[in-house]
Amino acid sequence: PPHPASLSLELLLTNCQVTHTRGSGPGGQHRNKVSTAVVLKHTPTGVSASASESRSQQQNQKAALQRLRLRLALQLRCEHPGDPSALWRSRCAGDRLSINEAHTDFPSLLAEALDHFWVSQDMRA
Predict the structure, then answer these.
(1) Which domains does the chain have, with CATH numbers?
(2) Which end of the chain is more exposed for a tag (fewer CB within 10 A), N or C?
């Protein structure tokens, strides 16, 4: 099965419990009356992420999804990562991997790299 961090945003969202809350901190009357903060909990793993920096619930949900993908990439390991993905192969240039932290594929590639590293370290032990 694919790593949860490599799922599309739509598919990942179907595996999440979404909670809308009011943000805390400064912001005045609008922030106190409108539930624009978003908390996402990945149901299969229990990993969660939140966002409340925007006045838009939609923008906060997008930010929370990206944070959730990054947390999933960092916290979950796949036992058998298999061969490099098509995405990985498309980003390889010789012995280097071309990726920017701001790119939407970053969590997926990070998860794949950590999975392969984890398996290689496990084999040495």
Answers:
(1) 4-124 (3.30.160.20)
(2) C
Q: What is the pLDDT of residues 66-123, one digit of tens each?
A: 999 999 999 998 877 678 888 888 888 888 888 888 888 899 989 988 988 888 776 5
Minimal CA–CA distance to 3: which of 77, 71, 88?
Answer: 77
What count of other Cβ atoms lies within 10 Å of the Cβ of residue 119? Answer: 15
Tell me the two tokens of residue 96.
């280097």
First-to-last alpha carbon distance for the chain, in angstroms, is 25
Residue 29 corresponds to which amino acid?
Q
Backbone angles phi, psi at 66, to 5 degrees: -65, -40
Phi and psi, residue 64, nearest 5°: -65, -40
Amino acid at 20: H
- In angstroms, rounded to a whole number, what is the distance separating the alpha carbons of residues 98 and 91? 5
In this structure, what token pair is assigned to residue 53?
Answer: 């920096």
Does residue 50 or residue 22 have the better pLDDT? Answer: 50
3 state DSSP class of 50:
strand
